[in-house]
Amino acid sequence: MIKLKGMAGSIVRCIIPEELPTADFKSEFDKAMKHSGSILNGARMALDFGARAISEATVTALLSEFVWPSGATAVAWITYDAASQELLKRAGLCTSEPAPREGSRGSALVLHRSLRSGQRAEHRGDVIVTGHVNDGAEIMASGNITVLGRLNGLVHAGYECGDEDSDAVVVSRCMEALQVRIGGKIGSLGRDAEWWGKHVIVSVRDGAVLIEYWPFVKGETESWGAP
Question: Which tens digit of pLDDT belongs to each residue from 170-213?
Fold first, then answer.
């Protein structure tokens, strides 16, 4: 069933289960509006689809059958399916987690899941993944990125810095990524490197991408070469 959950900044998170058939959307949204009373009227809403793929027809149906009738404003459309994110962005819809306050960096996004190939998370703040980031998956964060599982995919921390250096870091319990991006810098790693498969933290210092063991041990630091 569809769940409504309060968030910081007076935002209501609408969680649509990945296993919920699209054909059941209307009846489930009708139930959610009936049980919510007037809570949604005037509320800022974040629609959370998990890893579900979203079609143009789904977006149109949600707006006409749920968002507009409820009186809420959909400020974010969250999905980890990369193709769906591109579709939503072309429609001018926000696909990142809403910041609690206008202009704020935002709170941390914690993903209690693994990201598969073709899935992407983008967040204005820190991102913590308790699972794996598999090859073909992507994370973009304006802050730090922490992966408690295996990191195979592409991560870009401090992406809002453009070509400038960033104080953001990337942390992984099992580093198996060939490339890491921080701000405007790119670090590359070979499978035969000492750090491959290890607990590491990656940062930028004096214009160079550095990798070191995590937790940090003095002297165990080296520069990554540019690809």
Answer: 999 999 999 999 999 999 888 998 889 999 999 998 889 999 98
Length of the chain measured in residues: 227
Place of tokens 């900044």: 9
Q: How far is CA 43 from the centre of its chain?
A: 23
Asked whether 36 and 75 are in contact (CB, 8 A), the reply is no
Listed by start position, the domains of the chain span: 3-90, 109-223
**DSSP 8-class letter at 133:** B
CATH architecture assigned to 109-223 = 3 Solenoid (2.160)
- In Å, how far from its chain's centre is CA 159? 13
Question: Residue 91 and residue 116: Cα distance in Å, rounded?
Answer: 25
Residue 17 amino acid letter: P
Q: What is the pTM of this model?
A: 0.74
Under 8 Å CB-to-CB from 24, ≥6 apart: which residues?
none
